Every structure is written in C-alpha cells, then in structure tokens.
Amino acid sequence: MQLNIYIISHPIIEIMMNKIIYSQSNNIQKYYKKIGLLMVYEVLRKWMKIQTIYIKQINQIKELCILNTKESYVIITNLVESYPMITDIDDLLPSINIQHINQPIDPIKLQNSYILQKINNTSKILIFELFLNNYEIIKLLNYLLLKKNIKTSQIKILCITCNHKILEKLGQMHPKLNIYTTKIITNE
C-alpha cells in the first residue's frame, strides 16, 4: 500500500470527535457541522490557489485575493449522510459544486450527472465520506479515472474514519491517492 494517508490530528478536531463519540446530548449535529468545516479546511488549505489582484485607486492601491478562476472545485458525497457536515462549505468556497451520490453507486446515474459531466482537467475533486467502510468508492474512482480521464492528483478523499482493508484495496488499485482521515479502523 503506497497511499498518501494523512491523519488529521488537530486538537480541536480531536476534541470534537470525542464529543461526537461520547455525547449523550442532541447537540451532535452542531459538532458534525463544525468538524466537517474544519476537516474540509485542512484538506483545502494547501490545495487551493489564490491570485492577488492589485487595483490602483487615486490615493491608494487595493489588494484583493481571489480564487484561481481556471480551477473548479467539486465535492462528491452522499448528502443524506454528510449534509450536516457540509452545510457551511460554501463559506470556504463560494463557487463549489456539490454532487450527491447514492450508494450503491450506479454508473449510469454517474454518466447522467450534470456536475460530473462538467468535470475536466482543471477540476479539483473532494470525495467526502463519513465512514470509508465499503468498496463502492472504487466504482466512483474507476469512473473518474478511467471514463473521465481525471488524474489522481486532482482527487482527494476525506473521511472521518476509514477501514484498513478498504485502504489496502485502494492502495493496490490507485497507489497515488491522497486520503485524509481522523482514524484508521482495523477489523481483526
């Protein structure tokens, strides 16, 4: 397995994960919302490219930072599961496209998806799974990499937890993938 696996171990994320795991209250949605925003931030902070524009005015120069207009960002996720975690994503990336995907993954529905049809070689794709614990992700990756000819460097996978066996299979098939998670679970 040669995957690039990044364990997100930011103290704030770890504290919120504990609150989610051990909480008995109804505030879990609030924690999911915050942890989703923080995790997406961790993935995007080195991936996003900004351009600085200088506007000369009469008495001063204004500096504006904007996203690179040649790049587009897409989150592919099952909104039924992940909606609480990505509700505020547009605060980080106002122009992001979010594509809902059901499981089991249906290749025909993938081909008919408006957002997935617009993906090109400048698109940056974040596949967001709460728990990476089944092999359906491989169908999605095969579609993106083989049918859409997307490069592995354009794709990142983000999940709260991931299964070790799934990671092994992904490592055999797509060894250059980048995966961000808070925890790897081994099933003995």
Automatic annotation (TrEMBL):
<dbReference type="GO" id="GO:0016757">
    <property type="term" value="F:glycosyltransferase activity"/>
</dbReference>
<protein>
    <submittedName>
        <fullName>Uracil phosphoribosyltransferase</fullName>
    </submittedName>
</protein>
<keyword id="KW-0808">Transferase</keyword>
<keyword id="KW-0328">Glycosyltransferase</keyword>
<dbReference type="Pfam" id="PF14681">
    <property type="entry name" value="UPRTase"/>
</dbReference>
<keyword id="KW-0934">Plastid</keyword>
<dbReference type="InterPro" id="IPR029057">
    <property type="entry name" value="PRTase-like"/>
</dbReference>
<dbReference type="InterPro" id="IPR000836">
    <property type="entry name" value="PRTase_dom"/>
</dbReference>
<feature type="domain" description="Phosphoribosyltransferase">
    <location>
        <begin position="9"/>
        <end position="184"/>
    </location>
</feature>
